[in-house]
Hints:
This protein is an alpha+beta fold. Helix 4 (204-214) links the parallel strand 13 (190-194) and strand 14 (221-224).
Amino acid sequence: MGGVILSRLTVASIVLLLAILTSYSVIAYIPGVATLGEPYIVLPSYLLPAVVKPGDVLEVSVRGVSSVDVRDAYLYGVNGRYKLAFEGFKGDTIRVDPAYSFEVVKLSFRAPLDVRNGLYTIVIESDKGLLWMPNSVIVDSGGGPRSFIRVAQLTDIHFGAEQGGYPNNFKHTRYVALLNTLVERFGVNLVVYTGDLIDVGTDIRSYRDFFRIVSQVQAPQLAVTGNHDWAQVDSTRLLVERFYGRYVVPLRVWSFAYGDFLFIGIDTRMEGYPEMWQLDYLEDVIARNTDKTVVILMHHPLFTNAGEYRGKPEDLRRSIYSSWRDAGWEQAVRLLGIVERYKNVVAILAGHVHRDADAIYVRSDGSKVYFITTTTANHGYPEGYYWGMKVVEISRGEVKVLTPMAREYTPTSGSMNTERFLVFEVADPSNTAVSWFFNTTGFKEFNVGNVTLVFYLNKTSPLESYKIYGEQGRIHGVKSYDVGLYYLFKVYANITGYGRITVASYDDVEPPRLRIMSMSPREPALNRTLVINVEATDIGWGLERVVAIVMVNGAPRGFVEAQRTMDPTQFRIIMRVAEPGSYDVLVRAIDLRGNIREERLTFQVAPPLTETPGVGTPTPTQTQPTVETKTEAAEKPTTPPETPLTTPMIETKAPEEAGWASAWMLVAVLALVLVVVVVLLLIRRRPAP
Length: 689
């Protein structure tokens, strides 16, 4: 009997080991999760896709191996699953700049003749495990847009920083809803990001968040680096192998031909202007594609302010942005010479200055080049500006910034104002529940009565187990698709005002966990800011909010919504102590099902000191704060639905993250499992007494 038990334990251990290895091989090729040394697809990328026609050859570059034995390969999308015919592989070199290149294996596949037009995820089953890249292949029988293209531009996203009471990583999910709605309802063909995707270029956690969020956008996408993407990155090799190039695009310059259009990305670096070899590349690509309408993407703008400019470079020098004017003047002159000579260059899209500043350069023959500079999507801006994004319609002869709801365009306010578009996505740890909660009160850029919410859910739960919870009367329709590793859901919903919607494979019946961690200062003082640090977690669908209801001397004084931090379990309640007396602060954590956990914090605030001549008045004794906990289950939070989700603006920088902890933890787990297996095998082999 003992031998049978040991045998089962041994088998179970082996199964566990195989499960760990197999599961990791599945997730290892998601950018942001793959450990160094593992093979992964570098091109095409979700931010530099390949464009093919039915029957064309699709080339896929894999880094980290010298050969790949392909077993099966597929394209997955909302239009179905299509098997790719493998045609072989060869070694290749990708050159990033004159001093750095890397080796890849280039796999060749033949797209089937019956594949429908659309955006696809590529999935390759091989002897090296699962290789995949979401939204990286565009199938278009015509090759792409003709005559005109609509481009959504976002810039200066700054994942890894916090502002406005939310981490930028968290609040950027609203752009998933916004962009997918613009794609379906307003015909946006392409989304571009013009730099500063990450606040500190070594922040691997934020790169992972960026991939997870941005890959939900159901449109082709492109990106270039900004100076923040280079921050604390000491070389091109590190940029490509560990940070931006590993999780976004492994190139510093690139070109993307799409229908009648050619997009070219260049890297203005920390210095604020490109090296001359980049401009050589730029001119060479433009000269070989004079039949294409050319759009250039870069981070630092050439012109400082909005306006119309004409004349020789020296005549314009005072209007050129400082980094180009001071250190990169030779490059500025070269770029102006290129756009002067090549009439097919129609637009240059940039960011960096965190405000709209659209300029026009008039060539000597009277034709125009549009320099579009867009406000920041998520981070700080000069007084009078706002967070937003821009939609630009580009044709060979004209560039138009499209403003919503018939709002008049100006060169300094062409971006869509997204500050009141508070639409957030939260997924549970297993990705078997995704919730959207929102407050669009005050958002007037377009009608939000029919918005497209797109998200992925795990296939570990069967499709029929997923149900809609929350305000079902808001739902216009639901579509689901099998896209290989996940189910993709599209929910069409009315998100006017305040509300929430969840799609989950289970009901959430457990309230959140809540703990008041600290109070600073420890003895609150009159007319001082008080910060209450709170830890809140939820094992179900996730947290919607943490709020504090404040009573002073038994009378209500309103409530304060906690600010989120880069750590999703940590919240900050920031309040001003405006009057003396007995304070009773009820801290309430509310999950996305409406379950509530409460803790009560009480303390005393002394009145102002009064002095008697000749007698020192001692400070009144401060009572130590006390905490009381309470749990409650509810269908809806007791805070008013019309409560705004905004909080006072603050700014804090997130710590850098080396990204090694998870890899070492995995190694430790694997080593432990191997030891257990060996020990059990040895025990089993011992002779019976």
